[in-house]
Amino acid sequence: MNYPPFVDLLALSENLNRTNKHRKLNKILLQAWRAQSCLGDLLQADECCKVLRLKVDEKDEITEPQEQTIIKALQNSAVNLYARATSTSGKLGERGSIQLDTGQLAKEQKEDHEALITLRNQALAHVNLEHKMGARLWHKISLFAVLNCIGHWQLAAASNETTWNRETLECLERMLPLAIKFMQGKSRTRISAASEALNEAEISEATFRKFLFDPVKVFGSDAVVERLLKSHGKASVRF
């Protein structure tokens, strides 16, 4: 199918960044890219929570190992995506996050945000043996000995599963709508600033065309390309 030209703005801005004249443009485009990427994390976390809610509300207790694994994976993914978008720092070459304006949050919201970030840092990314979410001890490992029938002590060990708990899901469900709204605002503002900066930079048509790309190869299919074109710049479109 025939599509209008698609230009890779990050590749273009990286090339232009070699001159002092366009370093500001490069920075503004990267800010827009970062906001969109963080928003994508939050939207994906929200989808994880919606699927998780359906699963845990279907039954009073999930006993099948396969379902338990899915539930744990959904919650862990949601927590990590939330933290990655709103809190984690980025080293050189990494995207980083756009931290929430905690000054605009109520006391309870700050507590929810901190609980999720601490959970990610102390129980998912690392293992703090004393970390709790509510009343639940996240990592409980026991090394013990059992006296057998012939009078010998046998060494044994056991650990609880790093699983889901309802308090974490409820915390995510409270914070994700706030974080998504915040990130949508950041994305709109930064995309608008990027558009203005591109206009002011007065980049030639020939320069733009040096960075054309095939949208089907990048986005995967004609259907996705058509959906992106219909979105007309909406910040929430993903592929």
Question: How would you summarize this macromolecular structure in one to three sentences?
Answer:
Helices cover 59% and strands 8% of the residues. The chain is mainly alpha-helical.
Task: Give a written overview of the molecule.
It is a single chain. The chain has 239 residues and is mainly alpha-helical. Helices cover 59% and strands 8% of the residues. It contains 8 helices and 4 strands. The strands form 2 sheets. Strands 1-2 form a two-stranded antiparallel ribbon. A two-stranded antiparallel ribbon has the order 3-4. Helix 2 (23-58) packs antiparallel against helix 5 (166-201), helix 3 (65-86) crosses helix 4 (107-124) and helix 4 crosses helix 5 (166-201).
Largest sheet: 2 strands, antiparallel
- Mass-distribution shape: elongated
- Summarize model confidence as the mean pLDDT: 89
Proportion of beta-strand residues: 5-15%
The total beta strand count reads 4
Cα-atom Rg, whole angstroms? 24 Å
Structural class based on helices, strands and sheet pairing: mainly alpha
- The tally of helices reads 8
Q: Provide the low-confidence segments as ranges.
A: none
Write the layout of secondary structure elements.
Elements: H1 9-16, H2 23-58, H3 65-86, H4 107-124, E1 132-133, E2 136-137, E3 141-147, E4 153-159, H5 166-201, H6 205-209, H7 215-219, H8 222-231
Antiparallel strand pairs: 1-2, 3-4
